[in-house]
Design a protein that fits this description.
Belongs to the KdsC family. Helices cover 37% and strands 14% of the residues. With 188 residues, the protein is α/β, with parallel strands linked by helices. The protein has a single domain (11-162), classed as Rossmann fold (3-Layer(aba) Sandwich), CATH 3.40.50.1000. Strand 7, helix 6 (136-140) and strand 8 form a beta-alpha-beta unit. Helix 1 (2-8) packs across helix 7 and helix 2 packs parallel to helix 7.
């Protein structure tokens, strides 16, 4: 676990797939053909926690959905790329548009995906994560498999790990508790 925490401590940008990661992967249409998705509140708090400490977030998804834009705005996702099955090309294009002062390369990214179109991007980044119900080939190439499935708090697990790696987890938790706030030398 310490190796994962150390690796997560290098992450400057968390990149997420949507279907199967931020949602449970089911696509539901109502009687009018309108698509709906379910998102986890826990994942939203996790993504907001990263923003608090200057860690950027992005979505790269193969489908296009106004719900994804809405959710991304609600939880403060920094970059949204939709309608792209070529996740590696989309990731490289995203990285090329970032402010050079951020000094973010693929090695500084975590990527969380669950299916075959995610593999090349996952193989390029410094930290690759997935969910337990991901395709076997994705699991085989991941640094971490969460305990929770997509859409049920899996992203939160990665966010918490990144906060631990950066030494911000105890400080983040202190915002929500009456426990004594950690001192600088006790943060981990």
């Amino acid at each position: 676990m310490q190796d994962l925490i150390k690796k997560a401590g290098q992450v400057k940008l968390l990149v997420l797939d949507v279907d199967g990661i931020l949602s449970n992967g089911q696509i539901i249409y109502d009687a009018n053909g309108v698509e709906t998705k379910e998102f986890s509140v826990h994942d939203g708090v996790g993504i907001k926690s990263l923003a608090r400490y200057g860690i950027l977030t992005a979505i790269i998804t193969g489908r296009s959905s106004p719900m994804v834009d809405k959710r991304a705005i609600e939880i403060g996702v920094d970059y949204v790329v939709q309608g792209r099955d070529d996740k590696l090309i989309a990731l490289n294009e995203l990285l090329s548009t970032l402010d050079p002062a951020l000094n973010i390369t693929a090695a500084d990214c975590a990527y969380m995906g669950d299916d075959l179109p995610d593999i090349k991007a996952m193989q390029t980044v410094g930290f690759a994560a997935t969910v337990p119900n991901a395709h076997a080939e994705v699991i085989k190439r991941s640094d971490m498999v969460t305990t929770r499935a997509g859409g049920t708090g899996a992203v939160r697990e990665i966010c918490d790990l990144i906060l631990k790696g950066h030494g911000h987890y105890k400080d983040f938790i202190a915002h929500y508790t009456l426990d004594e706030a950690p001192t600088q030398d006790t943060l981990s």
